[in-house]
Amino acid sequence: MSLKSKPDGAEGRSAARLTEMIIGAAIEVHRHTGPGLMESAYEECLCYELSQVGLGFQRQVNLPILYKGVKLDCGYKMDLVVEDTVVLELKTVEHLLPIHSAQLLTYLKLSGKKIGLLMNFNEPILTKGVKRLVNHFRESSVTSVTSASSAREPPEDMKARIRFDTIKTQRLGVSAVKN
Fold first, then answer.
1. 3-state SS, one letter per residue, for 105-116
2. Domains of the chain (ranges, CATH numbers)
3. Is-above-0.85 flag for pTM?
4. What does pLDDT average to in each consecutive run of 10 residues of the chain (179 residues)?
5. Could you tell me which of 103, 97, 79 has the C-alpha nearest to residue 3?
């Protein structure tokens, strides 16, 4: 089920401003509810707050994977996508774990979105449970790396490109920035 809301005048906001507005709305929810509710309750309250500040969003967005040119529904669902730009993954866990960041990074990669917010509403102070993640993944960086089983040495310009592409690929795993 995907529910959409798109208030008028929501276009043209920068990603930084969007994340600021989203975090502000989440803080407002947390201020009124505190920790201890189910994830679905926070999602409902956050959707109300997002609509109050004029942000468009989609809820429970299906995210198929593309396998050999075929879209397959593997059960992935993004909690919220705000302004078709920021992916929100809501949690109510004791502590955020690396697997939660990996989940959001996977959603960013599969959806082609660049920015995601991981929010743990089970924290006494919400800002301690918010992580902003940026997807730096580029499809070309995976395909241009030479196979390790290759018997010949790549030319110097290829070596430089491989080193550069490896750095870009590694950035995907370390691009999480805690707000």
1. HHHHHHHCCCEE
2. 3-135 (3.40.1350), 137-179 (no CATH)
3. no
4. 45 81 97 95 97 96 91 92 96 96 94 95 95 74 33 44 38 40
5. 79
